[in-house]
């Protein structure tokens, strides 16, 4: 038995030695590769991609590729608001607004006025103080604006009437068309060729505010900044904490209120929130008020400061069904 | 990230053993010892069975050659070195004792001779079968032992993955390779053990039946002798 045992042990030792000599695997040199996340994206997301080319010139702000000027958000309306609150600077604290200085009598005027002052001084208090040119200019501007506004209102009324007429005419024309089409739509197998789509393959042009045909160097993330779903949810949660949805609005699809928020960097509202949609529901006005109250009450909002450009102007949807769904 | 440049892992056999967890190391050394033991038993059994077979052949040739049984007994009685000779010697000794003693006792001789031969056969088979059970045990258990080592090693390497928070193949691979090494050793021990067990147990069965056949023939011869002398 001892002999067999030694033979076996020696055999194993030889095998292991042979393995040590021949079974030298090359050390595994695995470079850690960047992970390649795969995402399903929509058209709009695709057009917002700002992943750039390495050869492109460095631009201050990377622009998405744009081939067509697309629709722009109606920003002009807001610029028309006359009662603008204090203009905010980038600093978090509102800068003290310089109060309109009372125009001091300028030395030139002082020279011109002595003629008047030469007249008896008693008359002076009775007379109105000499009209200031700057104030007058402002008043004039205001008057002009008022006149313009009136004109605009009139124009709008006129336009509205014209549109109504046009709409009626259109309706009639459309009805006629529909009748004709109904006759035409009867299936005719002989005309299948006409039904085929003969358009050449095409793609949707990327739209933006300015045409930009050169790829930019791109951002690190490869995406233009957008609020992530969780950030949007965070904002919604902050607002919902203050929101008392109108009672009995369980079935209110028509009570969905979209509110536009414009925020400062510290998360407070820079402009009074505006309701962006109309609803036919009798309680819509109440719902809208409730939404506005919630928005006003819950400021300031805590959002990532790095994406201020994105959330300085956001729309939030108040859906009472969400609220009741819990 | 300094380690992101490339995680190199030494996958030589020695490194595989040395980097493993101590439980896995114990499993590996145990399995290696099993393998050594299995091969030792296999070599020993192989030599023993070979020797027994040739000796049986030679004995049967001598037995049926017409040689005198007394002579054969005299030549073998000093050293009954293999099973069939031991059987023959045991039966002949019993026979001789019955005749050489002061009182001749034929009555139970036949039965006594058969008993003696049965005992000798069972002793010889036991000698041939010794340690074969070790082969069977190693053959069936060592894959599980190796698997245990693997599971332990993989658990360990997953813990290290969780600790390093990096799931790239370079981090996962060495640990799993180490762990699988335990299963490999288990299989290396188990496969020969199973094969040898099957081969040797069938061989032992064959030799046992050959012994029994010889015992029957020999007892028939002796019983004829007893009847003639009585």
UniProtKB/TrEMBL annotation, chain B:
GO terms for cellular component: plasma membrane. Signal peptide: none annotated. Pfam families: MotA_ExbB. Keywords: Cell cycle, Cell division, Cell inner membrane, Cell membrane, Membrane, Transmembrane, Transmembrane helix. It is a multi-pass membrane protein. It is found in: Cell inner membrane; Cell membrane. Residues 110-212 form the MotA/TolQ/ExbB proton channel domain. The keyword Cell inner membrane applies. InterPro entries: ExbB/TolQ_transport, MotA_ExbB_proton_chnl, Tol-Pal_TolQ. Its main location: membrane. One of its GO terms (biological process) is bacteriocin transport. The chain crosses the membrane at residues 20-43, 132-155, 175-197. Coiled coil: none annotated. The Tol-Pal system is composed of five core proteins: the inner membrane proteins TolA, TolQ and TolR, the periplasmic protein TolB and the outer membrane protein Pal. They form a network linking the inner and outer membranes and the peptidoglycan layer. Part of the Tol-Pal system, which plays a role in outer membrane invagination during cell division and is important for maintaining outer membrane integrity. Belongs to the ExbB/TolQ family. This is Tol-Pal system protein TolQ. The gene is tolQ.
């Amino acid at each position: 038995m001892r002999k067999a045992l030694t033979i076996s042990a020696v055999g194993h030792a030889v095998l292991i030695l042979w393995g040590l000599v021949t079974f030298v695997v090359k050390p595994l040199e695995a470079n850690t590769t960047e992970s390649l996340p795969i995402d399903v994206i929509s058209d709009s997301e695709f057009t917002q991609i700002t992943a750039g080319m390495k050869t492109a010139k460095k631009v201050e702000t990377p622009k998405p590729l744009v081939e067509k000027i697309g629709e722009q958000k109606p920003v002009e309306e807001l610029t028309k608001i006359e009662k603008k609150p204090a203009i905010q600077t980038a600093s978090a604290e509102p800068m003290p607004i310089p109060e309109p200085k009372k125009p001091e009598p300028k030395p030139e005027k002082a020279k011109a006025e002595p003629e008047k002052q030469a007249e008896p001084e008693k008359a002076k208090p009775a007379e109105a103080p000499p009209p200031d040119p700057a104030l007058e200019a402002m008043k004039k501007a205001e008057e002009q604006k008022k006149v313009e506004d009136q004109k605009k209102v009139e124009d709008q009324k006129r336009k509205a009437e014209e549109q109504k007429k046009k709409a009626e005419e259109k309706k009639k024309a459309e009805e006629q068309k529909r009748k004709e089409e109904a006759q035409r739509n009867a299936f005719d197998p002989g005309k299948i060729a006409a039904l085929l789509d003969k358009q050449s393959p095409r793609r949707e042009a990327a739209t933006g505010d300015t045409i930009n045909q050169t790829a930019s160097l791109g951002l690190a993330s490869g995406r233009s900044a957008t609020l992530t779903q969780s950030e949007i949810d965070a904002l919604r949660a902050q607002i919902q904490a203050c929101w008392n949805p109108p009672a009995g609005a369980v079935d209110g699809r028509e009570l969905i209120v979209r509110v536009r928020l414009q925020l400062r960097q510290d998360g407070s509202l820079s402009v009074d929130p505006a309701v962006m949609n109309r609803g036919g529901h009798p309680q819509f006005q109440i719902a809208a008020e409730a939404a506005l109250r919630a928005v006003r009450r819950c400021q300031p909002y805590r959002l990532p400061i790095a994406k201020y450009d994105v959330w300085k102007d956001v729309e939030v949807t108040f859906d009472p069904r969400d609220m009741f769904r819990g | 990230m300094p380690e992101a440049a490339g995680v190199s892992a030494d996958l030589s056999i020695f490194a595989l053993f040395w980097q493993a967890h101590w439980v896995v190391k114990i499993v590996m050394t145990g399995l290696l010892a099993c393998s050594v033991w299995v091969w030792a038993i296999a070599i020993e059994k192989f030599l023993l069975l070979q020797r027994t077979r040739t000796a049986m052949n030679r004995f049967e040739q001598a037995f049926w050659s017409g040689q005198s049984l007394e002579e054969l007994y005299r030549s073998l009685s000093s050293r009954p070195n293999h099973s069939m000779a031991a059987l023959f010697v045991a039966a002949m000794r019993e026979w001789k004792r019955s005749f050489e003693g002061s009182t001749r006792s034929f009555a139970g001789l036949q039965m006594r001779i058969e008993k003696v031969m049965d005992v000798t056969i069972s002793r010889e088979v036991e000698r041939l079968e010794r340690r074969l059970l070790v082969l069977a045990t190693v053959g069936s258990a060592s894959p599980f032992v190796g698997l245990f080592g693997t599971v332990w090693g993989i658990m360990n390497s997953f813990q290290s993955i969780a600790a390093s928070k990096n799931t790239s193949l370079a981090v996962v691979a060495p640990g799993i390779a180490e762990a699988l090494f335990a299963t490999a050793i288990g299989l290396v021990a188990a496969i020969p053990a199973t094969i040898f067990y099957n081969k040797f147990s069938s061989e032992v069965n064959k030799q046992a039946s050959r012994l029994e056949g010889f015992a029957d023939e020999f007892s028939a011869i002796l019983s004829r002798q007893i009847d003639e002398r009585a």
